[in-house]
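Holo prediction. Input below; ligand is NDP.
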Amino acid sequence: MSEPVSIDTFMEGVKKRNPGETEFHQAVFEVASTIFPYIADKPIYHKWEIMRRIAEPDRIVSFRVCWQDDAGHIRVNRGYRIQNNNAIGPYKGGIRFHPSVNQSILKFLAFEQTFKNSLTGLPMGGGKGGSDFNPKGKSDAEVMRFCQSFMTELFRHIGDDIDVPAGDIGVGGREIGYMFGQWKRLTNRFNGVLTGKGLEYGGSLIRPEATGYGCVYFLENMLKHDLKAEIEGKTALVSGSGNVATFAAQKINHRGGKVLTLSDSDGFIYDPKGIDLKKIDWVIDLKTKRRGRIAEYVKEFGGEFHAGKKPWGLKADVALPCATQNEIGIEDAKVMIKNGVKAVSEGANMPTSQDATHAFLEANVLFGPAKAANAGGVSVSGLEMSQNAAHITWKEGELQKMLRDIMDGIHGKCAQYGQVKGKKYVDYVQGANVAGFVKVADAMLAFGVV
Ligand code: NDP
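Structure of the complex:
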């Protein structure tokens, strides 16, 4: 059995075993830097090497995805599925289609997902998958052929009690439909092997809204718990204009807040009058049906478009980064702190760099880390799995209440484990990491060395 090692020695090992995988190193270090102090007086976790085992995926599958474009050319992409840990339930996590996808990014996401899924209280392990395929600019027929080819390999590694993928960046209802169709054809089975499905074929109500709404519920809970404040009357910077961003913006409006910005990889729009519910519906239509760019907003509603820029330089009360990883760096954080931001709630996965996160915590800015703040999506995915397994359909009101309860529960667990002596507010980063870790670690202890 092992003696306790320092975090530096631990990280040296992680870097040596995973050369060049900087996003993965970043995610493991972020978690380890709160777990190591917590387990310092709990030798059992050291003895059984729990952190080393969680930071080594159970399985990495990498495969060739061949497909033919509309011009008849043969295209070759790379597909992945990372099955990180199934100690508390079947692997669960989204599929991302984006040219930036690589093994490091998917390993970081699968690792994070393990803690996030644990926090929800539902029986789900952690996984993630995807491809460097870029759906942008592709015809529907090309996307369909790609998805079918991707599933033709993936199907042998997944199952409703093995691994249940969902959507993520570049994978929405259209892609899930094509992949589920191919799964059904290959296996002759109809079950809950994917979540985020259409309502006609086993999907759950409120799944599209769940991540964005949950992110705002977490923000609301932080404001209430630590500042005795409300969202009403507050201004908000939101980045992204996809699934998470648009529904987060919608819920901010429901709560009486004012959304000032949205963005995509071309730049951000600033609407000083506020991006209200009608404008958000237009953006949802633009992005999901017309597959347009956020710059078009200005032609329709006015405001400003800032090409190639991020929204963090503007003054606002709260910020919800909902686009992608590492979109708030240390310089952005410094400006936001100077501008008096009160809270940051992460809709995207790891959108804040580690030094920026520390700067927020040091400056007493409430900080809701992704694994807690954006867990609403996977929670409703878990509820979709339950409905599929029981062959039932819950009503919208029931699901809304369950989502709210789960997000309140996650906030409660973070507040319980995130009390730090001498700190003015809850450290939600520590709270989320420790609360997520304990359940997975204790299950792993129960299994012995496997
Ligand atoms: P979408 O594909 O629907 O939207 C992504 C948005 O982010 C788009 O506006 C996209 O712009 C923008 N974006 C992507 N990459 C970049 C980049 N490099 N720079 C600037 N903007 C970028 O994805 P989701 O909304 O589903 O996901 C957003 C984030 O939330 C991701 O980190 C995802 O992992 C996370 N998440 C999503 C969940 C869900 O339920 N969907 C659940 C939990 C987390 P463009 O169109 O120009 O690419």
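Residues 167-170, 211, 240-245, 264-266, 322-324, 347-349, 374, 377 surround NDP (CB under 6 Å). That is the main takeaway for now.
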